[in-house]
């Protein structure tokens, strides 16, 4: 089976510092992979290379077998890869439902003048409402986006990513900046997307309990290099990972 996402020898250097070094990885469709590693290991830089925010110094990125190394983030989004902070078109003065409905509409390629028909509009709205249920935000469907709490905004972003037909979701520390009370809700959202079973998820997260609970595979980055990639059980038993890093991670875990 062809991987939905693949990197070959992916490398990026900033000046003399190699932040991601020779990373080759295959991610199969509908799997959940978490990327772990100490601060500065290159996790976010790796995501930037996947999403196209950064161009590699060398190496390649493939989406569904297509070489996207030189494609813009927008073109990669159209091929099904999405990252939550790429969502810049959240309209603060529109309701939550309207925001998601516009994303559904954009994905369908239908513009204002073409969807005057009430049935089409209702279908878009219904789909948007379903997505709000997936991200556990349907009770806020009529709230203005600008009035959402931080955690709810992250849920809205995820709903919009789903509305845009994102097959490969890149989630970079979705719980960052959240209050402790907000964390279980975003965890439930991620779990429910995973359980729907039709998306591939890559997660960067420091919370090891969350990572171990959700992941099919773990990828360990250390000094920009891929130290190991395996099931959570095997990673936890991997002596190299243990000695290089895991002890320290548990100390850091919040
Ligand atoms: N645009 C940039 N210019 C120069 N150096 C950069 C740039 N982006 C990242 N780096 C460097 O690359 C290294 C990896 O950083 P990165 O943010 O990817 O680590 P990380 O694993 O995501 O860390 P954290 O867990 O703290 O978020 C760091 O040394 C960082 O300073």
From TrEMBL:
Source species, domain of life: Bacteria
Record SUPFAM superfamilies: P-loop containing nucleoside triphosphate hydrolases (SSF52540)
InterPro entries: AAA+_ATPase, ABC_AA/LPS_Transport, ABC_transporter-like_ATP-bd, ABC_transporter-like_CS, BCA_ABC_TP_C, P-loop_NTPase
Keywords on record: ATP-binding, Nucleotide-binding, Transport
Any GO molecular function: ATP hydrolysis activity
GO cellular component: plasma membrane
Every ABC transporter domain range: 5-248
PROSITE patterns xrefs: ABC_TRANSPORTER_1 (PS00211), ABC_TRANSPORTER_2 (PS50893)
Matches recorded under SMART domains: AAA (SM00382)
CDD domains referenced in this protein's UniProt entry, alphabetically: ABC_Mj1267_LivG_branched
Protein name: ABC transporter ATP-binding protein
Annotated organism of origin: Brevibacillus composti
């Amino acid at each position: 089976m062809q991987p939905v996402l693949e990197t070959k020898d992916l490398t990026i250097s900033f000046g003399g510092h190699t932040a991601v070094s020779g990373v080759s990885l295959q991610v199969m469709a509908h799997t959940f992979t978490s990327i772990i590693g100490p601060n500065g290991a290159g996790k976010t830089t790796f995501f930037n290379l996947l999403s196209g925010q950064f161009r590699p110094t060398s190496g390649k990125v493939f989406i569904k077998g297509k070489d996207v190394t030189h494609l813009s983030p927008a073109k990669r989004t159209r091929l099904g890869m999405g990252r939550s902070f790429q969502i810049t078109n959240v309209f603060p003065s529109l309701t939550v439902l309207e925001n998601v409905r516009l994303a559904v509409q954009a994905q369908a390629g239908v513009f204002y003048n073409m969807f005057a028909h009430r049935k089409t509009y209702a279908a878009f709205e219904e789909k948007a409402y379903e997505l709000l249920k997936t991200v556990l935000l349907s009770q806020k469907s009529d709230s203005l986006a600008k009035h959402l709490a931080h955690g709810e905004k992250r849920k809205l972003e995820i709903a919009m990513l789903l509305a845009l037909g994102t097959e490969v979701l890149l989630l970079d520390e979705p719980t960052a900046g959240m209050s402790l009370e907000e964390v279980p809700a975003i965890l439930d959202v991620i779990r429910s997307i995973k359980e729907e079973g039709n998306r591939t998820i890559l997660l960067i997260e420091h919370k090891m309990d969350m990572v171990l609970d959700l992941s099919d595979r773990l990828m360990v980055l250390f000094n920009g290099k891929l130290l190991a990639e395996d099931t959570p059980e095997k990673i936890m038993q991997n002596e190299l990972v243990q000695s290089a890093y895991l002890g320290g991670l548990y100390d850091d875990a919040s």
